[in-house]
Amino acid sequence: MSTKVKKIATEEAFSIPEVAEAIGNVARSSWDNLDMKLMRVVYTRPKDDMDPWLRQLLDIGEGRIAQMDENGVDMHLLSLTAPGVQLFDADTAVGLAELANDRLAEAVAKYPTRFAGLAAFAPQDPKRAAKEMERGIEKLGLKGFIVNSHTNNEYLDQEKYWPILEAAEALGAPIYIHPRAPSDGMAAPFRDYRMDAAVWGYGMETGTHAVRLMLSGVLDRFPNLQIVIGHMGEAVPFWLWRLDFMGGPQRKRSPNKLKPSEYMARNFHITTSGVEDPIALRYCIDRIGADKVMWAIDHPYQPTPPAVKWIDEAPLSDEHREMILHGNAERVFKL
Ligand code: 1WB
Ligand code: MN
User: Fold this and answer.
1) Which end of the chain is less crowded, N or C, counting CB atoms within 10 A of the terminal residue's CB?
2) Which residues of the chain have a pLDDT value below 70?
């Protein structure tokens, strides 16, 4: 059962065999960055006993479309699953990002009304990343970019990554900052109790990344840059009052010209991925505006039927439901 409102899901993961194999190779090494815990579980199984998530990630065709049809989902905005190409050396990462983008463009060409896509890039090499970003938008017709938070423990506000921010701004296409596990410097307390990944670590890592963009002042340099974060804003909307009070430009030594809430208003959108909580949704609409919120399932990590059911049943005006389920995504990603 599903309302007739058109549904565009905005954080829907996929992979390709070559990336999965490369992650498997890294996961079999002795590297102990925090993502390795989950990567070892998902990517090191024998081919004839594939992890069910991986099986679904590799399907960007019939099976996925059938599952969307069963649940009344009109479109997946596809993105290469976390941590993308960010575990690899620069040359491997550049090559695999290109390959993933080519495959993604093929899937979109085959099902143009059902799929749209975000381009991957290799932050390890910011200049070549900017080139691939341009190709992704202008040649492949993709609609924005996906990056999985830190790269080798570094964040996008750092000057070496500015070519990436500059390219996104110039191309008029948003960067979706998707989670990965916390960087080495903050990893220790997240090593226990499954806190490394989606339970808690992903949100802390990615919310921290968003706050760095706000407080560094880098968004004064790229005022038209558009950033999307998932998971109901990775807790940032809940913190805005205190972020403004403690981290606004009125505070001594603040490099940022605007308040965090002003960057939220000008430079950010959020998606609902994996937070099927009508109270959190109500709060975000009231705090940052219904024009800022886009629905997402987080396929295959969250099941589709409850993701559809909760948004169908959420107490929303017809106008807000249309915005959150498709209108905002159509505007932000130029679908
Ligand atoms: C999970 C979620 C795992 C995501 C992932 O592995 C990704 C999880 C890459 O629920 O454990 C995700 O994209 O939200
Ligand atoms: Mn996700």
Assistant:
1) N
2) 1-3
Ligand nearest to the CA of 42: 1
Locate 29 and state its tokens. Answer: 């090494």
Q: In whole angstroms, what is the distance from residue 252 CA to residue 84 CA?
A: 38
Which DSSP category does 104 fall into? H
Question: What's the gap in Å between 248 CA and the centre of ligand 2?
Answer: 30
What's residue 298's pLDDT?
98
CA 191–ligand 2 middle distance (angstroms)? 20
- Ligand 1 site, residue 325, Cβ cutoff 6 A: no
CA of 249 to the centre of ligand 1 (A): 35
Task: Judge residue 284's burial from the number of C-beta atoms within 10 Å of its C-beta, 0-12 exposed, 13-18 middle, 19 or more buried.
Answer: buried
Known catalytic membership, residue 32: no
Choose, from 35, 125, 157, 298, the residue flagged as catalytic: 298
Q: Residue 4's pLDDT is what?
A: 85
| Short-list 228, 218, 213, CA closest to 177 | 228
3-state helix, strand, coil in the chain (%, to 5): 50, 10, 35
- SS3 track for 16-59: CHHHHHHHHHHHCCCCCCCCHHHHHHHHCCCHHHCCHHHHHHCC
Tokens (6 digits) for 9 = 């899901």
